[in-house]
């Protein structure tokens, strides 16, 4: 192993430590989110999907995204997201439909129940983020 005395090695070590700190903060925050959302029947990934769908909703609540668009925003694989969406659909929180522009694609939208749950849980999620991510 190389000595840690050179500037390059010290800079690399600092970068690695910064990265590990970010990973640790993410893990702690995700655990706190999961714990806080559990009482509402959700985990952090469930909420992220609801939040993405709610963010761009029109005043009447209508908005849908293609599955791959959601996957990019919530950083899940398409297969993991498909399983999550299937569960949310079974709970009546989202609905899936065919994509008009590409018949192979699937669009996902919030239901009224999903919008109501999102509104109820949003302050819980934001409070956890505020507590965990502000100094």
What does this structure look like?
This protein has 135 residues and is mainly α. The chain has one domain (7-133): Orthogonal Bundle (Arc Repressor Mutant, subunit A). It is built from 5 helices and 3 strands. It has helices spanning 7-38, 44-55, 67-74, 78-90, 112-133, and strands at residues 64-66, 94-98, 106-110. Strands 1-3-2 form a 3-stranded antiparallel sheet. A hairpin with a 7-residue loop joins strand 2 (94-98) and strand 3 (106-110). The longest helix is centred in the first third of the chain and has 32 residues, at 7-38. The protein is globular and about 60 Å long. The model has no long low-confidence stretch (mean pLDDT 87).
Short overview:
The chain has 135 residues and is mostly helical.
